[in-house]
Prior knowledge:
With about 160 residues, the chain is of the alpha+beta class.
Amino acid sequence: MLIDMVAASQLTNGLALGTLRKVHHVAFNVKDMQASRQFYGAFLGLHELTGDEVPSTLKALVAKGKVANFVTPDGTVIDLFWEADLEPPHTDPYQQFTRANHLAFDVAPEVFDQVVAVLQQSAVTIDHGPVTRPTGRGIYFYDPDGFLLEIRCDP
């Protein structure tokens, strides 16, 4: 109960309800890029971004086969990052395991600086950022369990 009250009080000092507009993208680490591209593209039927659809910041990595991008019908992007040395998951299926790299939330460009200020004044651990790229601005930070999150906006 005390933990719930502390968590609730921390949330009241955080971002305003509705600041996060949508999930912008989810990034997964994959060991076998070709198998993953086949799975997300041919098997799940998701559209793979190619040519001018690829964000300019990822074009070089896509050309080298290190990143592939897919989009769901609702516009959420799934980024696959090739990690050749990725260890296999635990053989016990009840063990927690994730191949996720990070989860990115989208905010309006006009509130991005306010979001950064809230994060910097809070107790969250910031991994890096804010960063500015041709595809927008972002800041990376950790949730209480150490999962990497991003809040980003379009340019």
